[in-house]
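Good day; I would like, with your permission, to put a structural problem before you. What I wish to show you is a protein chain and, alongside it, a tokenised description of its three-dimensional fold. I would ask you to consider whether the tokens describe a fold that such a sequence might reasonably adopt. You will find the record immediately after this paragraph:
***
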Amino acid sequence: MVEHEIIQSRQNTKIKLWRKLLTAKGRKQQGHFLIEGTHLVEEALKYAQRFVELLVTPEYLESSEWSLLAKYLPVNLQPVLVAADVLKSLSATETHQGVIAVLDLPKKIESWQPNGSKYLLLDSVQDPGNLGTMIRTADAAGFDGVLLGQGTVDVYNDKVLRATQGSIWHLEVISISLDKAYDALKAVAIPIYATALHQTAIEYQSITETSKAAIVMGNEGAGVAQKWIELADQAIYIPMPGQAESLNVAVAAGILMFKFAS
């Protein structure tokens, strides 16, 4: 069942409130975030995310995409009709698809223990596209989780979410201090590999034990902080026979994660 009254003004109280979710501050204050597009909404429904509202345009209800989503709708989620130009004010894309959802932010993690054997740790990764791509690649490589250290871009940024293509709900993705992450990983003997151009670093191909690993990737410009390199079990690097000075951090992470892929 769909609400028949259509929200037709950008000054509508709910619309103004939801528009604030386009900012990290607004998301933190309200405890909600936005996703848009059929694929992301479908993945969120499949993986039982906590929906607050599902907003659709009248035109979207006539589309085949709506038929695809409708079969996943829980009985307590009643879509709200929003005029196309009003929904556009909530979209971070040039051309929206006609469907946007408001979801609850996951509860803050106070303590964490690894339930798997393969993790990606991120130290101040700041580009949304890089973060989203690394989450998606971690999913593809069969990793158990991505741990976001301090200084890393907000994972609920729209560009991050779109780059994950829904993988954010396929594995554990949490914000945690790297101090706590290191302690928890070491407690269960998961080796920590920090990427570094360092005199003690070894070529990643030389690693023979691949059943468990935690890989630390760093900031696009500065790399992994020296502290995390020193606390890691081993510094590793990717040999580059060509003339490039460096690799994009998401590309490098992909190469390393598939070294340990199941």
About this structure: The CA atoms of residues 42 and 69 lie 6 Å apart.
